[in-house]
Amino acid sequence: MAHAGRTPHVGSALSCVDLLVALYFSVLRVDPSKPNDPDRDRLLLSKGHGCMAQYGALAERGFFPESALDEYARDGGRLAEHPGPHCVPGIEAATGSLGHGLPMGAGMALAAKLRGASYRVFVVLSDGECYEGSVWEAALFAPVQHLDGLTAIVDYNGWSAMSRTHLAMDPFAEKWRAFGWSVREVDGHDVSAVASVLAAVPFEPGRPSAIIARTLKGKGVSFMENDLEWHYRPPNDDDLRRALLEISG
Ligand SMILES: Cc1ncc(C[n+]2csc(CCOP(=O)(O)OP(=O)(O)O)c2C)c(N)n1
Ligand SMILES: [Mg+2]
């Protein structure tokens, strides 16, 4: 998709794709034939720039035909470089302007609680996104409201757009705990480990859950892993050939 659409962010998509596979294939109570079911679990990919991974997972899960992936980043196509609300079934909100997913997710979780609805809300954030103050406003709000239907999953790959994130973020799990969240850490590329952790939410009744997922930007393609160039550079023909060879094993 990045090659055909000549877009950036392939490293960002590879960083979170295993988290999305665990969510869509093991955890979320969703039915592709009823994408607007009021009781469906909600997933917000707050790091909307990683949406190639979400579009791919949604297509594979049956929310829309795989052929629609050809519309990615095309004029007039439904699949924009950052998702628009309900642009295709399964996309719940506009994301990509970093810092908005957790506040929206907290609102959705509060709405569920007020209505006595059973749906749960999962928000996938990026670590660089956590530079945004609005993330921490929502992080303050959710425990006070006892939103145990809300789970934040942070794709902690150690990179923002320009620099490493550790200096500002660490000790990251402790920060979430201090805000009142129940926290677990996991290898974000071990799909079954991620699925088991997610199966255990809420970790504590009455508290929102946070999962710090240790990830690699560009995971799965040796020359993209941990190389910030792939935040920006669309793969050329040769990059595509080499990457697909590695991914297909
Ligand atoms: C509010 C806002 N500011 C800036 C950007 C531009 N931008 C896109 S991705 C990114 C940061 C990338 O690092 P991270 O958030 O950790 O995501 P990763 O790709 O590493 O998963 C930035 C600053 C944005 N999308 N939204
Ligand atoms: Mg990052």
Provide an overview of this structure.
It is globular, with a radius of gyration of 17 Å. The two termini are 19 Å apart. 38% of the residues lie in helices and 12% in strands. Helix 2 packs parallel to helix 3, helix 2 crosses helix 8 and helix 4 (101-115) packs parallel to helix 5. Strand 4, helix 8 (191-199) and strand 5 form a beta-alpha-beta unit. The mean pLDDT is 97. It has helices at residues 2-5, 10-27, 51-60, 101-115, 133-144, 166-169, 172-178, 191-199, 229-232, 237-248; strands spanning 42-45, 121-126, 150-156, 182-187, 209-214. It has 10 helices and 5 strands; from the N terminus they run ααβααβαβααβαβαα. A 5-stranded parallel β-sheet has the order 1-2-3-5-4, sandwiched between helices. It has a single domain (2-28, 38-48, 93-248), classed as Rossmann fold, CATH 3.40.50.970. By secondary structure, it is of the alpha/beta class. Bound molecules: thiamine diphosphate (TPP) and magnesium ion (MG). Residues 12, 15, 47, 49-50, 96-99, 126-129, 155, 157, 159-161, 217, 231 line the site of thiamine diphosphate (TPP). The site of thiamine diphosphate has 20 residues, from helix 2.
